[in-house]
Write a structure and sequence with these properties.
Helix content: 25-40%
Strand content: 15-25%
Largest sheet: 5 strands, parallel
Number of helices: 9
Mean pLDDT: 90
Order of helices and strands: EHHEHHEHHEHEHHEEEEEE
Structural class: alpha/beta
Length: 311
């Protein structure tokens, strides 16, 4: 993902911050300090929750002492996680009325991106139109959770239709971004303590992953602004031919197109230097394009190995 020059956004009483959270706790782990900064000067915050985080079986099995998890159990777990989010917002001085939930399937944001009816784009556009933010925090393109990367692409597609406004800030929860982050705002011990207090509302997540989540929340919050890359449509990967039968390539463009192919059927051609170039109608236009490489093998590991890139 290409990034703009490191310029910190100016936050005032007129700031309207929309935090797009694929799951409950993303808003606190990566944006708890940003939210406090906006609220401290009288700005307005809304959290747009894409999923209830109900596809979260291992903590649920541990806390509920059950193995089998059906639709009813998942729905109950989703209600619990959304209630934890409401409490976390209260601890960050954000009213519960500032929470808007879309109810998408957990681990299903990519599926929403690929739906030909583009209903996900319409829902996101409606949320933006309703709140009219001037600042949107969304997971970074390089975040390795599949819901997070897909959420970034969807927001980029929607904002392209709005002519580049509001300003978009990418935040990272899972993985390492190779871009240059914006300068870190000064953080007081009271703000950091309030953020950890908000994280403590997520008892369901801290039960098995407390140490990891606290470490994630202790990291400096770095928000990077994406800009058009201007790069050639060359894929950043050169996968081994041994993997080709199992590979899937996903592509999306800011024009609203999104498709997925097995590697052998993907619109690719050699670039003459050992790499692969995306030869897709949207890639031949001026639209920004995003590609994702994945391995079609069942695995308990949910995070992306290659993930999304802008080309």
């Amino acid at each position: 993902m290409a990034l703009s020059a490191a310029v910190e956004p100016r936050i005032t009483a007129q700031t309207r911050l929309l935090v797009v959270a694929p799951h409950p706790d993303d808003e606190t782990i990566a944006n708890g300090l940003l939210i406090q900064s906006v609220r401290a000067v009288g700005g307005t915050v809304r959290v747009l929750l894409l999923t209830d985080g109900d596809n979260n079986p291992w903590p649920q099995r541990w806390l509920e002492r059950r193995w089998s998890i059906g639709a009813g159990e998942r729905e109950r777990w989703g209600h619990r996680r959304r209630a934890e989010l409401a409490e976390a917002l209260h601890r960050l001085d954000v009213p519960t009325t500032a929470l808007q939930s879309l109810g998408w399937p957990d681990m299903g944001v990519l599926d929403r991106l690929l739906q030909p009816d583009q209903s996900a784009l319409a829902e996101l556009a409606a949320a933006l139109d309703d709140f009219a933010p001037d600042l949107v925090a969304v997971p970074a393109l390089g975040d390795r959770h599949p819901d997070h990367g897909a959420a970034h692409v969807l927001l980029r597609m929607v904002l392209a239709r709005l002519g580049g406004t509001p300003r978009l800030l990418g935040y990272l929860v899972h993985g390492h971004d190779d871009g240059t982050p914006m300068p870190e705002s000064p953080v007081t011990p009271a703000q950091q303590a309030a953020k950890q207090h908000a994280l403590a509302a997520y008892a369901s997540q801290l039960a098995l992953s407390g140490g990891r989540l606290r470490r994630l929340a202790e990291r400096p919050e770095r928000h990077a602004q994406p800009v058009a890359s201007g790069a050639a449509r060359v894929l950043p990967w050169r996968p081994s031919p041994l993997l080709w039968p199992r590979l899937r390539l996903t592509a999306a463009s800011t024009s609203g197109l999104a498709q997925q192919w097995p590697w052998h059927a993907a619109p690719l051609r050699r670039d003459g230097q050992g790499g692969w170039r995306l030869d897709w109608p949207a890639a031949r236009a001026e639209d920004a394009c995003f590609v994702r490489l994945s391995l079609a093998l069942p695995s308990p590991w949910i995070f992306d190995h290659w993930g999304w890139r802008e080309v």
